[in-house]
User: Fold this.
Amino acid sequence: AQSVSQHNHHVILSEAASLELGCNYSYGGTVNLFWYVQYPGQHLQLLLKYFSGDPLVKGIKGFEAEFIKSKFSFNLRKPSVQWSDTAEYFCAVIRSGNTGKLIFGQGTTLQVKP
Amino acid sequence: SAVISQKPSRDICQRGTSLTIQCQVDSQVTMMFWYRQQPGQSLTLIATANQGSEATYESGFVIDKFPISRPNLTFSTLTVSNMSPEDSSIYLCSVEGFTYGYTFGSGTRLTVV
Assistant:
């Protein structure tokens, strides 16, 4: 069965540190990829998505992610985190044409210390 | 992107009772999706709700336990029936948008006691 794995469950960083959150998926066909963020007390928000084209995707709030097809990976990066980035981050994958059936990773809790 | 209103935002319910969760979208959408997030776990798709037809349930979820209504293109309900403590979760509805991915409601945090 298709699955998504996020390597880090809990990450603690100081402000201005660089961030990279790993995401790997198990499906070998064409996929669409997403990163969602959930700030404390708020609902899930889309950070960025990859459907096709340039594998380096830029999202909101300075986040970017790189799709590496050969590694089945879609890692999220940010060069300098802020305290306001404290949140839970979810990677999600959907098979192209498989409307609605997002497969989510377990989530990574990011805590940024001021 | 679509704006989704979900209610209630949270509830505490007695075991054996049922709770109906409402999801209202500010635009017409073909499909609406219901997810569950159990404590400490990721989101799992429960079912897909199309207007005018029965919902399609994922493996492990059945209509008797999670009946869904979809009376029009902007509204859906999910009922959690005959609840047990294992049903304590966050329930979310979602809609698709090609250009903006999938949008989620704010979720309903259900605690069954």
About this structure: The radius of gyration of chain B is 13 Å. Chain B touches chain A through 22 residues (CB under 8 Å).
